[in-house]
Amino acid sequence: MARTSPSCSRAASRRRRLGRRRSALTAPIAGLAAASLLGLSACGGGGGTSDQANAWVLNGGVWPVVEQDFESWNEENPEQSFTVDSFANDVYKERIRTAVGSGEAPTLIVGWTGGTLLEYIEHDYVVDITEETAELQDQLISSVADNGIVDGDVYAVPMNNVQPVFLYFNQELFDQAGAEVPTTWEELLDVVEQFDEQDIYPLALAGGSRWPMLMWASYLTDRIGGPEAFQGVVEGDPDGWSDPAILEALERCQELVDAGAFDPNFASVDADQNEDARMLADGQAAMVLQGSWTYSRMLEDHPDFAESGDFGFTTFPAVEGGQGDPANLVGNPANFWSVSESASEESQETATDYLSERLFNDEYVDQMLATGNLPPLEGLDEQIAETEDEEFLGFAYDVVREAPNFQLSWDQAIDPSQEQALLENLELVFLGQITPEEFAENMNATQGG
Q1: Looking at residue 437, what is its pLDDT?
Q2: Res. 46: pLDDT tops 50
Q3: How far apart are CA 50 and CA 234, in angstroms?
Q4: Burial level of 181, CB count in 10 A (0-12/13-18/19+)?
Q5: pLDDT exceeds cutoff 90 at 22
Q6: What is the C-alpha to C-alpha distance for residues 389 and 397, in angstroms, rounded to an integer?
Q7: Where are the annotated segments for Disordered (predicted)?
Q8: Which of 247, 242, 413 has its CA nearest to residue 330?
């Protein structure tokens, strides 16, 4: 029988078990109210749920492979089938928060872990799936899988590709300008000047979506100050955003803008429509800093460019004198599945059966690799060597496994209540409307909820 709300006694038991076991990483959410998820609490009489499991997925990239896997599961398991709905990235983020808070979440919830997952756990919106996913955990790259584990319990498991952020480039444009792909920040500034002289936009930036700006700020912060520079923000330090490395990183972002590195209309470029990647493929921009999903989307949307030999990729430049290791990564270790507490027992069982029996099956992995996506699994070297995309996948696989630190995207790592303020203030920095110091003052005011 479908439940209209989870058991409050069960929720209370989990709260007691969680207690105050918050480490420094989880401290920022300790005082959050359930209202920040824009809906009723899990014990507050939310709407009813169906016995049929459902999942919400995103558009583009590897997601068609995910949808196809659900179709195969449904054919083989008609009594445990899923309904699947697809959303653009930004639309999904808006809708899932409302759905989770109101008790109307899909059975399988896509997330990025970080602060949002901690809030889900704090308010009992997702269930502990440690036992059900034990065998799956043994197959995963631990640095990726660990993002779904809180105090030893599994609340989320990676379900698609590892997603580090890389610098992509158009080799034809570099040849035309007589430029070399930059490996340091000073070299990047030099090639910006070279491309400006050729009337080519050095860099595409989807400023209309705002979150791509985070990639610049977070990579520069890491390269300048190392992983420790952002730790104060995560730990809820009242002055965490004033770390010198963050301030210098934002100064360098404004330096890029002032140097003419981006299309003057970058504030209207949309990442959901892959407009920044299209600028690279069409020869309007020489480089773009984007996630690993850009590779598979380029194969799908711009196959001629992707297969021309001019589509290149590299790691983010080193910053001379910086404390951060140039091998560090920024991005999303993967998207993760969590199971909704508000789902019926029948649909929860369907979801955990899918995770334990189906996720990262051979066909799923083969399809991911065939579309240029890298599963977060150990022991893929031979399979990668046999793919048509060996160059990119081998590069990404080595980089991920060798990275000393993999910084989760800032908008996912922080307390969810800060996300909107972060994006708004970062946009103002890139538009030159506030200084880095004003950014820090505004963001410090959000620390602690």
Answers
A1: 98
A2: no
A3: 37
A4: middle
A5: no
A6: 12
A7: 1-20
A8: 413
Residue where the block lists tokens 């420790």: 228
Q: What is the mean pLDDT of residues 245-268?
A: 97
Instruction: List, in order of start, the domains of the chain with CATH numbers.
Output: 8-162+333-378 (3.40.190.10), 165-330+411-444 (3.40.190.10)
Q: Which tokens hold the place of 17?
A: 């078990």
| Nearest residue to 299 via CA among 399, 372, 350, 246 | 372
User: Residue 104: CA atoms inside 13 Å, Cβ hemisphere, count?
Assistant: 11
C-alpha 233/C-alpha 210 separation (Å) is 20
Looking at the predicted structure, is the pLDDT value of residue 348 above 90? yes
pLDDT at 23 over 50: no
Specify whether the CB–CB gap between 181 and 169 falls below 8 A.
yes
Amino acid identity, position 421: A
Phi/psi for 10 (5° steps) reads -65, -40
What is the rounded CA–CA span in Å between residue 80 and residue 351?
Answer: 9
Residue 113 pLDDT exceeds 70: yes
* Crossing angle of helices 436-444 and 419-430, rounded to 10°: 170
Integer angstrom CA distances of residue 51 from 29, 211, 350: 32, 36, 9
Q: How far apart are CA 139 and CA 145, in angstroms?
A: 10
Q: What is the pLDDT of residue 448?
A: 74
Element (H, E) at 211: helix 211-225
Q: What is the pLDDT of residue 418?
A: 94
Q: Which residues are paired to 140 by β-bridges? A: 377
Record the pTM.
0.78
Check: CB of residue 204 under 8 Å from CB of residue 288.
Answer: yes
Cα–chain center distance at 152: 22
- Which residue type does 132 have? E
Higher pLDDT, 61 or 304: 304
- Supply the pLDDT for residue 20: 28
Residue 18 predicted with pLDDT over 50: no
Q: What is the pLDDT of residue 285?
A: 97
CB proximity list for 112: less than 8 A, separation 6 or greater: 332, 335, 336, 408, 409, 412
β-pair type (285-291, 163-170) = antiparallel
- AA identity, residue 318: A
For β-strands 153-154 and 157-158, DSSP reports them as unpaired
More confident residue, 218 or 22: 218
How many angstroms separate the Cα of 170 from the Cα of each of 202, 239, 302? 10, 40, 13
Contacts with 420 (C-beta within 8 Å, 6 or more apart), sequence order: none
Q: Checking DSSP bridges between strand 149-150 and strand 153-154, what pairing results, if any?
A: antiparallel
E strand segments, 318-424 = 329-332, 336-339, 406-408
